[in-house]
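Pasting as-is:
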Amino acid sequence: MYRRDEVITTAENLFAQHGYHATSVRDIADALGIKAGSLYAHIATKEDLLWESLSQTVARYAEVINPIVRSERSVAERLGDAISALVEVSMERASATTVCRTEWRYLSEPRRGRFAAQWKILEDALWRLVRDGAAEGRFRSVDPYIAGKVILTSAVSKCAVVGSGDGRVIAEVGRKVADIFIHGLTDVGTAIEPSATHENSGR
């Protein structure tokens, strides 16, 4: 009998390769070498696998960046380390990351809304670091909300998940991506004041 995590990983790989809608329960069962009916011992619906994959991936992102964001290091160090960590997770979990980027829209409500809320928490952590760095005069003046979206999207983009394997290579790519953003932000201009829209929306 396959463990549930093996079922989820197999589904992730197929969702990433072929898309959620183009992957059937039979496809997943075939990849596992079991009958489709046997798969229902693990799941109630195919969407359950998509939801668990997405939830686990977002939770992993949060797990790696939360301690960094809450640390006492400088804002530039925290943002750089957070970006690097996100890229490393994306490279280590390439299929799961692809599913997270492209297949979440196939969730039904209320799961889609819950996923969007979890994703927004990650964006919020990043844009607040950009805002704080600008307020301290360490970063140039940019829209922090847009910056948070761009940083998170880039960290989990296709370019970030190309290649994998050697942990040293993954770490090096993560640091290079982080350096690109930090160098772009440290051409210091005037400090920014967060807009009322951002503050009132929690963004």
